[in-house]
Design goal:
heterotrimer, A mainly alpha, B alpha/beta, C mainly alpha, A: mainly alpha, two-stranded antiparallel sheet, C: mainly alpha, ABC transporter involved in vitamin B12 uptake, BtuC, 11 helices, 72% helix, globular
């Protein structure tokens, strides 16, 4: 539908313009806030790519985020310029994703989810025990003179968020995306029709790992301190899942909307009520799963969107 | 479309809320800090907060600072360094505080001091002692506590004097305990004692049984733990469960708190530990402070509370010396200050690390925490050796 | 090397078996729910903590010894589980497994944070049954032994219930083929509610006992649920006896790893095993990991 497409393009460009000029009239604190929104958008879109479009719901995508964060921090400490550290952070995550993807994507539905959950924990344990490399439980604290400025981090994150969204948008309208959605609806049928499910799945998985890796590196430089618990974080996991499911998984606008709403909610609550805000996320997750599987977007557009959990066998 | 109007309604709402978050009188002197109110270090974090609050009350009764009322803004960092970092960013860039006090625990302090350094904002640390905090070349972090790597020196010297040789060392895998451990290892080497066991454990560990079984086989004379309250308590409990005996047990943080005796009862008897301060010390104002604190909070102050109060006093003295809230002058004042607060002497070296205040050793004797070392400040003689489990 | 001393090896074995027995109580309950309803309950460990905190409260405010609390807490959580199933889980039964995973994930987050709001993340414990029974060279921890005894008794009781009683057989019928069981006149929904209640009750019993062994906080659930998954996936999902023996095995492996390497490695065992099995030998689970969800 050409109309829809142009509307989307206009809206997207407008938002992008807004985001790019924001540092001119918004103070440091709100820039930080926006940076975090961009981060969630980027992470959400990446998750969307594997979980939303392919139907392989990952409960542990923060594993790649964590790897990227540590890679970025360590490279920065080793003297690499920050942008190289970010690229390499993404690269390392990507390299890890290839063998991991081949191994985990053999598993169906919930087992894949649990395996990813386990992988996240393994990442955390590796970071904790491999003290020679990662300083273990102490974490890594980056000195201020090594760090890029807030504005630089802001634009890095914005770039990552935009890239992620564009990738998802492109994939959505491409044959690749069609094949992914076919896998989501019925993998065996897709195989029979000639879709190379393994290659497609792994491609999506690897792409979905690249972004969090880079985002993790930027995050480390933004926050100046990381440790195993903070980057291999189950709380971050659930935020990503809620954001995408809430907004509408398998779509391009879903993570954008979800990130906006959830982050605003978070901002109102996190400093004063840390436990309440996470409980609220749990409630949101439940509500979405039970009553609104297509997320907000399906509510708004009244068009059947894909469900994240469509790995279904219709016959027992 | 529905979602667009929705969003466009939310953004102004958020901005207005944010605007309101720093209303109230702009003339107050605002002190910002994050405290461990939940999480592993909650118990000690709360004590520290009590100390701060008491100081704020009393300084306002004296007329405030520079003629303005003092107001404390604090958040809960959940004993997590990553949360602390976000909170200090908020305190500095959003709440725009005038003065900064550090959080509890070396781990959270190491992380948050980077934020303070980034904004060239001097921060006085009330609850951190890891010497590594001050080896990074930062100019904006000032400490009150005696450094961690000296914590066990007195205990080890005492053990050596009693002819003991075999030392077992365990510690949590975060900054402060590591620093304590490094100090122990150096001292053991210097005293020519024998480190027969060393193991690190995770922050969330509460199960030490396998570790204790291993330790038992090495037959140590002295067991030293670089620990906080929950782990030292759990360890002693499980030591009893496994009938693990040594002539001396000592922990960094834990025995210095009344909770230790409350939670372990008879099993705390004979355990040694560190303290940065006791009300029995011969410091002007200490006893009066203790009395006032007990009246206000219904319990005697531990050293964390005294440290909190002392930090307020240091800030007060620094502001008076600088004559303003200007960051550069404050920094200079904090560097040059040499005073005695109810917490003890405050004097820092060029990196901001505390060099004027000594550390002390306590031991649980007959259900009461007594200071045993150094002898000049002792309220009781050390009880040695540790009583066997079967005989309690 | 002193560690190869048979006494130490045996001591570690004892400790491991005792810990494993407690895991068994937890894992068998989780397994039961999966077998009957094909639902993976990620909130299982939080239900255990409900039992733990209930015992803590009863101890703190009424002075009740946890062994007495068992009598109150276990039935109470059974009822809680019974109705929770009706209200929440029924909505996801029959939907793809992933839905139940997400829904119970949400539930576990809610319970965890409600627990944090109510109790903060300070560690709590109940100092009863402390110390050890000394038998020659061996020290047998009293609270762990008590927990093991309670676990074994309860697990055995549940097993016999499933095996011998009519209701138990009905439950097994539903887990084999729900549609046929319905046709035979079994009230499948009631069975599901009962099973969930039973599983929750078992978890709560484990929770009550662990108050005397470990220090716990609302955040302690994560470790336990991972152990359960490792146990169940290795032992075979839906296989009751497999879950029991798998638990003992995990307990012993953890004890030995803790003894020979370090306690940090011991904590990693469950996660590493889980991931290793899933990634490397999923076919060794008799195609379970490729399970086609049944309605």
């Amino acid at each position: 539908m050409p109309n829809r497409k142009y509307k989307d393009l206009w809206l997207g460009t407008a938002l992008l313009m807004l985001a790019m000029t924001a540092p001119l009239y918004v103070n440091d604190y709100y820039q930080s806030f926006l940076l975090q929104v961009f981060m969630m958008i980027a992470l959400g879109q990446a998750w969307n790519l594997i979980s939303g479009m392919t139907g392989y719901v990952s409960f542990g995508h923060t594993a790649f985020f964590g790897v990227g964060a540590y890679a970025g921090a360590l490279l920065l400490l080793a003297g690499f310029p920050w942008w190289l550290a970010v690229l390499k952070g993404g690269g390392i995550a990507l390299l890890l994703a290839i063998p991991l993807g081949l191994l985990t994507l053999r598993l169906r539905g919930p087992y894949f989810a649990i395996a990813m959950l386990g992988l996240n924990e393994v990442g955390r344990i590796a970071a904790t025990l491999w003290t020679d490399l990662t300083h273990g439980g102490d974490g890594i604290s980056l000195a201020p003179d090594l760090l890029p400025s807030l504005r630089t981090n802001y634009f890095s994150m914005l770039t990552l968020a935009t890239t992620a969204t564009l990738i998802v948008a492109y994939v959505y309208r491409s044959r690749f995306g069609l094949e992914l959605r076919a896998i989501r609806e019925d993998e065996e049928a897709a195989e029979m029709v000639g879709v190379n499910t393994v290659a497609n799945k792994v491609m999506a998985f690897v792409l979905s790992a690249l972004i969090p890796g880079a985002v993790g590196a930027v995050y480390a430089m933004y926050t100046s301190y990381i440790n195993p618990q903070s980057v291999f974080s189950p709380a971050l996991n659930i935020q990503i899942i809620v954001i995408v499911l809430f907004g509408g998984s398998g779509t391009v606008w879903g993570p954008l909307i979800g990130a906006g709403v959830v982050m605003v909610l978070r901002e109102l609550l996190w400093a004063q009520f840390p436990a309440a805000h996470l409980a609220l996320l749990g409630v949101l997750l439940l509500a979405v799963v039970l009553y609104l599987p297509g997320g907000l977007l399906s509510f708004v557009r009244a068009r059947p969107q894909g469900r994240a959990d469509s790995q279904v066998r219709k016959t027992p | 479309m529905k979602h667009r109007s929705w969003l466009s309604g939310l953004l102004p709402a958020v901005l207005t809320l944010g605007f309101f978050s720093f209303s109230v009188s702009a003339n107050d002197v605002v002190v910002g800090t994050s405290v461990a109110l939940t999480g592993k270090y909650a118990r000690t974090g709360q004590d520290q907060l009590n100390g701060f609050n008491m100081w704020v009350e009393e300084v306002n009764a004296r007329g405030g600072l520079l003629g303005s009322k003092v107001r404390l803004v604090h958040y809960d960092d959940e004993s997590k360094p990553e949360t602390g970092v976000k909170l200090y960013e908020k305190l500095i860039t959003d709440d725009k505080v005038d003065l900064l006090i550090g959080p509890y625990s070396s781990a959270v302090t190491i992380a948050t001091s980077t934020v303070a350094e980034k904004y060239h904002f001097p921060m006085v640390s009330s609850g951190a002692s890891d010497s590594n905090i001050w080896t990074r070349g930062y100019k904006n972090i000032f400490g009150l506590y005696t450094p961690a790597n000296t914590y066990m020196d007195q205990i080890l010297t005492y053990a050596k004097a009693k002819g003991l040789k075999r030392v077992a060392l365990i510690y949590e895998n975060t900054d402060f305990p590591r620093d304590v451990a490094n100090g122990v290892k150096a001292k053991v080497k210097a005293l020519k004692m024998n480190l027969v066991f060393e193991e690190e454990y995770g922050k969330a560990s509460t199960d030490f049984s396998s570790m204790i079984i291993k330790m038992k086989s090495r037959k140590p004379d002295v067991v030293i733990g670089g620990s906080y309250l929950p782990d030292s308590t759990a360890f002693m409990r499980q030591a009893k469960e496994n009938r693990f005996y040594a002539k001396m047990f000592a922990f960094a943080v834990g025995p210095g708190l009344p909770d230790f005796g409350q939670n372990l009862g008879l099993d705390a008897e004979g355990v040694m530990g560190n303290t940065q301060w006791e009300s029995t010390l011969n410091i002007p104002g200490a006893k009066e402070f203790s009395a006032r604190y007990t009246k206000k909070y219904g319990a005697e102050p531990g050293y964390h509370a005294a440290g909190g109060y002392g930090t307020g006093q240091v800030l007060e003295a620094a502001v008076k010396k600088a004559g303003s809230l200007d960051k550069d002058r404050l920094r200079q004042a904090l560097l040059e200050l040499d005073i005695t607060t109810t917490f003890g002497r405050y004097k820092v070296d060029s990196t901001g690390q505390q060099i004027g205040k000594p550390g002390y050793t306590i031991q649980w004797i007959n259900g009461v925490r007594q200071m045993i070392l150094p002898e000049s400040a002792a309220t009781a003689k050390p009880v040695y050796p540790f009583k066997d489990w079967a005989k309690r | 090397m002193e560690l190869l001393d048979p006494i130490i090896l045996l001591q570690l074995l004892i400790d491991g078996l005792l810990a494993g027995a407690l895991y068994a109580l937890l894992a068998c309950g989780l397994n039961l729910v999966f077998g009957v309803m094909r639902v993976i309950n990620l909130a299982h460990a939080e239900l255990m903590l409900v039992g733990a905190f209930a015992a803590y409260l009863l101890y703190h405010y009424l002075g009740w010894h946890p062994l007495w609390s068992l009598l109150l807490v276990v039935p109470m959580v059974f009822v809680l589980g019974f109705y929770l199933e009706r209200v929440l889980i029924e909505c996801v039964v029959g939907r793809p497994l992933l839905t139940s995973l997400l829904a119970t994930y949400g539930l576990s987050i809610i319970l965890l944070n409600l627990g944090l709001l109510a109790f903060t993340s300070e560690y709590k414990s109940v100092p009863e049954l402390q110390g050890a029974l000394v038998m020659g060279e061996f020290a047998i921890s009293k609270p762990r032994a008590a927990a093991a005894i309670v676990s074994v008794l309860l697990t055995a009781a549940v097993f016999l219930f499933l095996d011998r009683t009519r209701l138990g057989k009905a439950i097994r019928a539903v887990s084999e083929h729900a549609q046929v069981a319905a046709i035979c006149g079994i009230d499948v929904r009631m069975i599901r509610m009962l099973t969930f209640g039973l599983s929750a009750a078992m978890a709560a019993a484990a929770g009550v006992m662990l108050t005397m062994i470990y220090s716990f906080s609302p955040e302690s659930g994560a470790d336990f649920i991972q152990k359960c998954f490792a146990i169940i996936i290795i032992g075979g999902m839906g296989n009751f006896a497999g879950a029991f023996y798998g638990s003992l095995l995990l307990g012993v492996v953890e004890a030995y790893v803790g003894g020979f390497a370090s306690s940090q490695w011991a904590e990693a065992v469950a996660y590493l095993l889980l991931v290793a099995v899933l990634l490397i030998r999923p076919s060794g689970l008799k195609g379970v990991a490729y399970a086609k969800p049944q309605v």
